[in-house]
Amino acid sequence: MYVCLCKGVTDKTIRRAVHEEGISTMRELRQEYGVASQCGCCKSCAKEVLSDAVKERNKRFLEETLLPTDVCYT
Ligand code: FES
């Protein structure tokens, strides 16, 4: 779905930006994609999508790096 109509930015674009480009803040999102830089109507929705994507990224990171994947029973 479109999150920012003024800049044509979708939720998929935001999620990809978080997961692949490391974007974590509204400031970064605004600088890279222009989200909420014109009318501002998208700000709360963009924050919500960004927050969800960052939580998902952090959860994946923790699962991949901190939890043991193999157990040795010897
Ligand atoms: S809808 Fe995002 S700045 Fe207007």
From TrEMBL:
It comes from the Bacteria. Keywords: 2Fe-2S, Electron transport, Iron, Iron-sulfur, Metal-binding, Transport. InterPro entries: BFD-associated_ferredoxin, BFD-like_2Fe2S-bd_dom, BFD-like_2Fe2S-bd_dom_sf. Its cofactor is [2Fe-2S] cluster. Residues 2-51 form the BFD-like [2Fe-2S]-binding domain. GO terms for molecular function: 2 iron, 2 sulfur cluster binding; metal ion binding. PANTHER family: BACTERIOFERRITIN-ASSOCIATED FERREDOXIN. Belongs to the Bfd family. This is Bacterioferritin-associated ferredoxin. It comes from Pseudidiomarina homiensis.
